[in-house]
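Incident log, structure service

09:12 report received: a user says their structure output differs between two submissions of the same chain.
09:20 pulled the input from the user's history:
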Amino acid sequence: MLDTGFSGWLAIDIQDLEGLNWTYLREQTMRTARGDTEFGLYLGKLRIVDILTGLKPR
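09:34 re-ran on a clean worker, output below:
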């Protein structure tokens, strides 16, 4: 699941993240609706493709 929320960040479940081979940067505390939470920050790229046409969005 991908969740951009309203923070400008992209949140991905750890089991989905493991297959992306992104580089771990550091932990960062972020405020959520449930209070302050530690998030792992990773660096990587994600290509979004339309699954019906196989084309990238314009």
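09:41 both user submissions now match this output. Likely a transient worker issue. Closing.
09:42 reviewer note: The radius of gyration is 14 Å. The longest helix spans residues 14-17.
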